Amino acid sequence: MFIGYFTERPYQDFDSGWVGATGREIEDLGMTNGDYDPKVGAELYNRYLDEKVYAEEMGFDGLMLNEHHSTPFCMGGVMNVEAAILARITKRAKIVLLGNVLPIWEDPLWLAEELAEIDMISRGRLVTGWVRGTGRESVAHNSQAPFNWERFQEAHDFVVKAWSTPGPFRWEGEHYQYRYVNPWARPYQDPHPQIWIPGVMSRNTVKWCAEHRYPYVMLATEIEPTKQSFKYYDEVAQENGYEASTEHHGYLFKVHVDETEELAEEAGRKYISGPANPFLEGNQGTVRSNLQNLPGLTSRTQLLPTVSTFAAAARGRQDAQQAALAEKDAEVDKQDSDAFGTYEEQVNKYSIITGTPKTVIPKIRHVLEELRPGNIFFWDGDGAMNHDDAMRSLRLFGEEVIPAVREMGKELDLKGAFEVNTGSGAAFPGD
Amino acid sequence: MTTQTDTHTQLAAEVAGLKVNALQDGSGPNIVVFHHSTGSPGWIPFYDLLAQHHTVTAIDMPGYGQSERPSWARHPRDIAIMLHSAIHKMGIDSDAHLVGLGFGGWVAAELATMHLHGLDSLTLVGAAGVQPEEGEIADVIFYEFEEYVKLGFSSDDAYAEVFGDQAAPELKELWDFSREMTARLTWKPWMFNRQLPPLLQELDTPTLLLWGEHDRVTPIGVAEVYDANLPNSTLKVIEGAGHLVELENPQAAADYIAAHIGA
Prior knowledge:
Helix content of chain B: 25-40%
Distance between the termini of chain B: 26 Å
Oligomer: heterodimer
CATH architecture of chain B: 3-Layer(aba) Sandwich
Shape of chain A: globular
Structural class of chain A: alpha/beta
Largest sheet of chain B: 8 strands, mixed
CATH class of chain A: Alpha Beta
């Protein structure tokens, strides 16, 4: 089993009015960086790096970073810089990038070079991962939404070739063109770092991922849809002539451990306070559906179907959107709640797991038994949690939770992507 | 709003292996209309007014409505080239007056620069295509698509007069659907082409620039740039109207066009 640690690194400015129920709206792409304080940013970047170092000391196998743009819920706009620093200041843990937003890179050769450098500096500890990004990312870096999926696939093919095929070669693609591909930096790992793909549901991505035999990491989705996505992955795997197993499945979920149940609840409630990710459970922010639904980000049929069926489909979708908006409006007024439900509801459905090691460990076991992922990430230290909250939890993870979860992994035979090669199904040498 | 098609002639042409559809009605000299970025809503009252003395052909631009998507197209100029061919294949060889609405106005302007002496007249209604010296062309990316259409009217009340408080689901779907093709054709820069103004200087076709007084989508500064570069242009402003003058004040729009093309 592979056990990683994750936080989105929110921009926490307790003087800004954004943290807690102050009434100051947290709207996606609706906040000016005129309110950004680089001194606060400096403290937070260093804090999050320190916590990653401590996470390694506490026995985590992987330190996961992610990337978002023009938003306070994630400070990892240039995640590769953080990864490069971690490459130098950590010793053992994998540095897991989930992931670079491939379609917004105008020059993926530069990305190939950056990642190769990180892999070398870390002496082969990079796990690279790629995403399509949300509409926010396409807007922030002005990447043409209708070609997002095409650009993702082409940039992937290009970077893998740049890493694994001796240059120079020429690349005249649909979206990327190079007359001389011969980067003077190649990945430490041969032929290249493992590629893991994070996601939330997109069937397109699950299918593509299974076709490439890459681990697919579900990001804090609820248990039942997560199972369905893993099932779909497994079906595509069968169609492609192999049996997918635990090493192909990854799951990120919110777990906070604390010294007492009272402290755990106090910190746990902070998941849904402050500038946490407005697209996942645990936020007080406002999403803008037009940014989520950029034209062409999800491609439609090329021709309008007949009006009658189209209208029916439209009505259904609009009704669903309106119902979702009404639900969100109703929830916004409730403190300690978000679009998905109250804190208590999230705890009840395992969307947030918090408690002392004694209460947390059985809940983790429940999730592992239900989903059987070989690669897991505990999402902690987020929302309005402060450094002390994060450090208490990390210590208890190291002292009690990780050892127990490793035993569970053995007992449940949950092998991770560094025990079994997802491409060949063979055990790695020495494992 | 009339969307029925059975009283109008449906035309189709194949261009670059793809089907291009159009509706046609009326008799007399040809007027060809290119629709907005939100797609063609079908046959609208404005077309009936134009069709009193003309043959009006309203084309679904490639990738919109019932016209197949050229997946390779990356610029309105690609669409202009296809439409030039489509118009020819639909039998409209001469006496053609071209009317472009909004984004369709940009496509019409591109076509005109490639067809310098082939058009009897050009009318650009709230057309995109050039960068205004001040302000910017409204960006659909920052709006719910229905809000974007509302922005096309001088007021929400004017929108409601045409579409009601809630537009028909079929129309909303059309608007939503059409955004994708538009986003394939223009993204950066948004809604204009820096190569167009110098090329417009070669176009001596009589051109009417028709703008709504309260156009909140394409600022009047766009018309001024067209006017400054076109050797033979006239700018007319319809008082009280927004961007979608053909919906908000079809009679005034049709009258101006009729006067321009000499009906």
